[in-house]
Amino acid sequence: MLDRKKKERIQKLMERAYALGFEVGYYKHYESVGWVKRELRRIEEEAKKLGIWEKILEIYRRGRADGERKRAMFLIEGEARAETSGGRGRVRGIEEEERRTPIARVIIRWKAHRRPPMIRLPSFLRRRNQF
Question: How far is CA 57 from the centre of its chain?
Answer without folding.
Answer: 23
